[in-house]
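Folds abound. A case:
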Amino acid sequence: MFLHKHFGGGDGGGELDDVARNLAHVLGTRRGAGYFLKSFGLSDAGFRTPEESVTALTAELRETIRLYEPRVELVDIDEDYDDDGARARLVVALRLRSHGERLRLVVDLSSRSFDIVALAADGGPG
């Protein structure tokens, strides 16, 4: 991001790091916090059932990534389950448009936390 590169004291580490930093900023913001960008960030779960939360969060992830990080292409969103069969997290596959490098974004539904990892050519963490 421009402000981070020019005022944050560094080059940012390249496009991949810049995209990851931007996604962390956008997805870490509560939706509605910026009155002029109503679709920026992700909504609180509120009083939704787990199924409603998955549906709503999946739709918001698609919209938010499309609107606020055009350098990546959203490839797929999968639900990942724990051993008990309860929904645990969403796994989002992303691809950098410029170089084809792949990222994996994992969103934990219970804590609403997320992790962004660059993937190596073989599909494992890079």
